[in-house]
Structures are given as structure tokens and as C-alpha cells.
């Protein structure tokens, strides 16, 4: 079934538990790995790793040849609520950016009924939002209540040393060697937002490959201060 799903919604190949820096999220990782936990709600600030975790769970199921689907609801403008019909037949559904449906009555209603069908079928549902289920802006009371039924975790953001660890790991996976000096320069001269750091790494990877240059401070400087 998962082979028929839109390619744009598939979990990226790079998202895995192996390249997620656990830091203070040990118990969360344990619960995500436990298939007996049928409902989990993750929340936290942008860039804390919620999407990566949902994609990693999806990837692990697909690798095991189980039916799993990752859907980012921030694509609401491109989606219609009826796409949830039949999705309860999946072994796992990961719904990201649940806050995006807040105030959209048709989506809230559809999500409520999907939740019930998923529970009845015994499938696993993992959701993520920018706020806790209790404090989210969902208008439909029954849906807001159901979002609180399972385990709830706040994804703890990474500190600067952990972000450096992420950068070095991601660089290594791309065949780049990031020295301590380069990592320290990046952390001192750029935004410490993890999504922006990864975007910078994408640019460095491209330029390094195109110009056949090693990852050095001068290369980083040329990218950071380029217009």
C-alpha cells in the first residue's frame, strides 16, 4: 500500500534513529521504538527534531516492509481532508505539524474520525505539534481530548555541543570532514537554529563538491558572507 503513496510525502532516506542526537530525549526514543505504544504525541519548538523523529519511525517501518506513512500537515493548502480516508489500514501513520489544522473545521472533524478509525483498527499513530495537546489551538473539544490519550513528550532542544555533534555527523554522512575549528567558526558566526545550520551545511556540501575544496574556515566564511 505504501508504494502507491505520493512520493513527496515519503520520509527522507537520511532520517533515522542512528543519526538523531539523543541528548535529553532518551525516554522518548525508547517509547518511539516500542511498537506497543500505539499513540504518542510529540511537541516542542521549531527545529528541535520532531519531524526527524517522525520520519525516522516511518523509515524504520518501511525498512521492515510494514505499511507506514508520514504526512506533514503544514502542506494543508495542497491537501484535502478526504486523503485520510483508508489510511487507518496502515501499520503506522505519523502526522506532523498537527497545529496546522487548528481552526480548519473540516480538517479537525476529519482528523477526529480518522483517530477513531485508527484506534479501532489497532494501528499506531504518532503526532507532532508546536505545542502540547492540552495547550494546542484545536477548536474541536473531542479531538483535543483524544490527542491527550496517549503518551506525551516535549522534545528537548539540543544545546550547542549537541548541535556541533549533529553538524559533524551530517557532514561525515556526506563525505565531508568537519574539524573542531570549522565547527566552532560556524557556531560563532551563524544562527544557532538547527534548521539553519543544516541549510548552511547543504550549501557547504554543494560548493565543496562543485569546487573540489575541503571544508575549511575560508570556505565557510565565503558562504556565510556571500551576497
Question: Can you describe what's shown?
Answer:
There is one protein chain. The chain is of the alpha/beta class and 227 residues long. It is 42% helix and 11% strand. The chain has a five-stranded parallel β-sheet with strand order 2-3-4-1-5, with helices on both faces. Strand 3, helix 3 and strand 4 form a beta-alpha-beta unit. Helix 5 runs parallel beside helix 7 and helix 7 crosses helix 8. The chain is elongated, with a radius of gyration of 19 Å.
What attributes characterize this protein structure?
single chain; 227 residues; alpha/beta; five-stranded parallel β-sheet; 8 helices; 42% helix; 11% strand; disordered N terminus
Q: What is this structure's SSE topology?
A:
Elements: H1 26-33, E1 39-43, H2 50-63, E2 68-72, E3 92-96, H3 105-121, E4 124-129, H4 141-146, E5 151-154, H5 160-173, H6 180-189, H7 194-211, H8 217-224
Parallel strand pairs: 1-4, 1-5, 2-3, 3-4
Helix pairs in contact: 5-7, 7-8
Summarize the structure.
The chain is 42% helix and 11% strand. The chain contains eight helices and five strands, in the order αβαββαβαβαααα.
Amino acid at each position: 500500500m505504501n508504494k502507491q503513496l505520493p512520493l513527496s510525502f515519503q520520509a527522507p532516506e537520511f532520517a533515522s534513529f542512528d543519526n538523531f542526537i539523543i541528548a535529553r530525549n532518551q525516554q522518548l526514543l525508547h517509547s518511539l521504538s516500542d511498537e506497543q505504544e500505539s499513540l504518542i504525541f510529540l511537541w516542542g519548538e521549531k527545529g528541535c527534531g520532531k519531524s526527524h523523529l517522525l520520519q525516522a519511525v516511518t523509515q524504520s517501518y518501511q525498512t521492515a516492509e510494514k505499511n507506514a506513512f508520514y504526512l506533514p500537515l503544514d502542506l494543508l493548502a495542497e491537501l484535502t481532508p478526504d486523503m485520510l480516508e483508508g489510511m487507518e489500514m496502515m501499520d503506522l501513520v505519523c502526522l506532523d505539524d498537527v497545529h496546522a489544522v487548528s481552526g480548519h473545521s473540516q480538517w479537525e472533524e476529519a482528523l477526529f474520525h480518522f483517530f477513531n478509525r485508527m484506534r479501532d483498527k489497532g494501528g499506531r499513530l504518532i503526532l507532532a505539534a508546536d505545542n502540547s495537546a492540552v495547550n494546542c489551538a484545536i477548536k474541536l473539544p473531542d479531538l483535543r481530548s483524544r490527542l491527550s490519550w496517549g503518551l506525551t513528550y516535549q522534545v528537548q532542544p539540543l544545546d550547542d555541543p549537541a548541535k556541533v555533534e549533529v553538524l559533524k555527523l551530517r557532514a561525515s554522512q556526506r563525505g565531508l570532514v568537519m574539524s573542531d575549528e570549522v565547527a566552532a567558526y560556524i557556531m560563532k558566526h551563524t544562527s544557532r537554529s538547527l534548521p539553519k545550520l543544516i541549510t548552511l551545511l547543504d550549501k557547504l556540501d554543494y560548493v565543496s563538491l562543485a569546487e573540489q575544496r575541503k571544508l575549511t574556515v575560508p570556505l565557510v566564511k565565503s558562504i556565510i558572507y556571500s551576497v
